[in-house]
Design goal:
about 270 residues, alpha/beta, Cobalt-precorrin-4 Transmethylase, domain 1, five-stranded mixed beta sheet, 11 helices, 10 strands, globular
Length: about 270
């Protein structure tokens, strides 16, 4: 019988932010696949986990998948962890899990730390909708295209501290200096910092404060180009031509960049 395979979330900063179940399962593992053995060893030493470590990152994931399959088929218990947070959330693991599924090998995931939910739980917003795009592209054109694509949705992304100022300036130049944005830095750590303000104010702040640590940001949804009365008029026109609420939401979203769910609800009303 194949061994057990677990996907386990690890702390994003504070090493005590790990679940009791995660520690218990890690102690049952013979092997742990991780991005950087040096980083993971610090966590394992703290909780007296004796499993053997080997690296599994985006550059060797395909090769390591074969090793993991062989170990599982030999009955070993293995865990996959990231340096911090939940595997597969802007971290390696997709290639490996695809291989496991093709081989018919079962696996399970243990809930735990994730920068996105930790960040969102500290950010006031009007609704629960958001788009997570991972690490934002480096070019100004790609950044602007993505942020405009999600202009009617809270848009969350990761960014390097070395590039954050440049990204903020691009947002200011191409989307607007008064665009509202939230930035989280060093979440769960001693110097954790959450800033919520306009892009122009945050540029001024970070030009005078050194940027270090992991960065997560959210550009707030922007005001619709169409007023609600205009939206209702367009919805009514399409309704009179017997379009369904679902079709109406797709059409108006495509033409005007409006939020599909918002249009759908208005169409139902």
């Amino acid at each position: 019988m194949a061994g057990q395979f677990y996907i386990i979330a690890t702390p994003i900063g504070n090493l005590t932010d790990i679940t009791l179940r995660a520690v218990d399962v890690l102690k049952t593992c013979t092997y742990i696949a991780c991005e950087d053995t040096r980083v993971t060893k610090i966590l394992l030493d703290k909780y007296c986990v004796k499993a053997k470590l080997f690296d599994c990152h985006k550059f060797n994931e395909k090769e390591r998948s074969e090793k993991i399959i062989n170990l599982l088929e030999a009955g070993e218990t293995i865990a996959l962890v990231s340096d911090a947070g939940t595997p597969l959330i802007s971290d390696p693991g997709s290639v490996l899990l695809d291989t496991l599924r093709n081989k018919g090998i079962n696996y399970t995931s243990l809930p735990g730390a994730c920068a996105i939910t930790t960040f969102l739980s500290q950010i006031p917003r009007k609704n629960e909708e958001f788009a997570f795009i991972g690490f934002i592209p480096r070019t100004k054109k790609q950044q602007t295209e993505i942020l405009n694509k999600y202009k009617n949705t809270n848009c969350i992304f990761y960014e390097s501290p070395n590039r954050l100022l440049e990204t903020l300036k691009n947002i200011s130049d191409n989307i607007g200096a008064e665009t509202y944005i939230a930035i989280g830095r060093e979440l769960t750590k001693v110097y954790e910092e959450i800033k919520i303000s306009t892009v122009s104010q945050l540029i001024n702040y970070y030009e005078n404060h050194p940027l270090k640590g992991e960065i997560i940001a959210m550009v707030y949804e922007r005001n619709s180009d169409l007023k609600e009365e205009e939206l209702k008029e367009k919805i009514q026109i399409l309704k009179e031509d017997n379009f369904s609420p679902k079709d109406i939401s797709k059409i108006i979203s495509k033409l005007y960049g409006e939020n599909k769910n918002k249009i759908y609800k208005l169409a139902l009303d």
